[in-house]
Amino acid sequence: MYTDLTKGNIGKSLLLFALPMMAGNLLQQFYNIADTLIVGRVLGSEALAAVGSAYTLMTFLTSIFLGLSMGSGALFSIYQGKGEKEGLRVTVLHAGVLILGVTLLLNVAVYLGIDGILVFLKVPEEVYAGMREYLLVIFAGILATSLYNFFSCMLRALGNSTVPLIFLAVSAGLNIALDLLFVMVFSLGIAGAALATVLAQYVSGIGITLYAWKCSREFLPGKAELHYDRGILKEIANLSTLTCLQQSVMNFGILMVQGLVNSFGSVIMAAFAAAVKIDTFAYLPVQDFGNAYSTFVAQNYGAGEKERIRKGTRQAFAISGVFSLIISALVYAGAPYLMRIFIRKSETEVLAAGVQYLRIEGACYIGIGFLFLLYGYYRAIKQAEMSLVLTVISLGLRVLLAYVLSAWVGVIGIWVAIPIGWALADLTGLVYMKKSKKLRKE
User: Can you tell me where the transmembrane regions are (predicted)?
Assistant: First the structure.
C-alpha cells in the first residue's frame, strides 16, 4: 500500500499515486459544495454569500496547519527516501506536537476575535448575522480538520495516498446526508449546514487518526523516540514554518480579495461564492498532482536520485499542462450551466457575474497548474523560501492589481488580476529552476 517513488516508470507511478489524492480532495470539496448547493437553493443568495465568505476565511485558517503538515510531510518523504526509520519516527513526534499546539491556539484565537474578523472582511449588514452564526459552529471543526490533514500528509509522504481517500469518501457522503437532514428536514438553517460539515470533519479526522495508530505503528514514535531532539525540531521549524507562511500568505491574499469582493455587495458576493467552488473543484486535480510530484521529488532527493528528478520534472509539467488546457476548455464552455447548479435561474445578475469570473480565470488554469508544481518542487528540495517568494509574487500582484483595476473598470478588474499573478510567478519560478545549481548534473 506504500509506494516507493524512487523506482519504476516515472509517469505511471506519478499518475497512480496522484489519482487517489485527486479523488480525495475532490471529495473534500463536497464539504463546502454541499453547503453551497443546499444553502443557495433552499435559503437564498444572502445565506449563500455568508457561507461563501466564511469558506474563504476557513480556507485561510486551515492553511496555517495545512502548511505545517505539508512542510513536515516533505521531511517525512526525505527520511523515507534515505531509509532512516528512527529519524522518521522522531520527526513525526515533533511535527505532531507542534501542529497540535498551533491548532489549539488558533481555535481559541478565532473564537475570541470573531467580531473583529467580520469587520475586517467588510461583511455587509444583511449578511453579517448569518455569517457569524455559521462561523460559531464551523470553528468547532478546526481540530478535526487539523488531525485529518496531519495524518493524511504523513501517509501520503510515505507513499500511501489511498487511505486518506477512503476516510474522505465516507465523511463526504455523511456531510451531504446531514446537510439535507439538518437544513431541509429539521429547518436548522445556516447553522445546520455548518453542523453537518463539522460532524463529517470529525468522522474523517478521528477515523484517520485511529487508522494510523492501528495500522501504521512502524512510522509512529515508540518509547525510544519520546525525547526532545533540537536538531530535528529546527529542521521541521525551518521547512514547515516557511511552508506554513507560504500557505498563509497565499490564503491571506485571497482573504484580502474576498474583502474587496464583499465591498461590491451581496450579488457579487453570492456570484463569487458559487464560482469559487467551481473554480477550486476544477483545478484541484492539478493541485493534487503538484503535491504528488512533491512527494516524488522529496523521496528521490533523499535517495540522491537527481537524474530521476530531472526526468520526472519534465514529465510532470507536460502532464499538468495538457490536463489544465482540457479543464480550461470545459469550464469556459460550460460556465453558465455550472453556475446554475448553485444559483436559481431567476437570479440573473448573480449568474452573469459568476459566468464572467469563470470565463476569465477558467481560461488560464495552466498558470495555476504550473505554479502548484513549482511550489511542490521547491518544498521537496528544502528551498521552501522560494515557494514563499512565488506566493508573494502571485498573490501580492493579484491583490494590488485587484484593488487598482477594480477602481478603474469595476469588478472585472478583480477577475483579470488573478491569471496575471499566476503568470509572473510561473516565469520567476521556472527561470530560477533553470539557473539553480541544486540539481545540476555533476
Answer: 14-34, 54-79, 91-114, 134-151, 163-184, 190-213, 316-337, 357-376, 388-406, 412-433
Contact of 152 with 209, CB cutoff 8 Å: no
Asked if residue 155 is part of any domain, the answer here is yes
Residue 405 lies in a domain: yes
Mean pLDDT by 10 residues, the chain (442 residues): 78 86 72 68 77 77 80 85 85 91 94 92 85 94 94 88 87 88 90 91 95 90 80 79 69 74 82 81 86 90 88 94 93 89 80 89 91 91 84 83 86 88 93 74 44
Beta carbons within 8 Å of 269's beta carbon, 6+ residues apart:
49, 52, 53, 124, 127, 261, 262
- Determine, yes or no, domain membership for 218: yes
Total structural domains in the chain?
Answer: 1
67 is a domain residue: yes
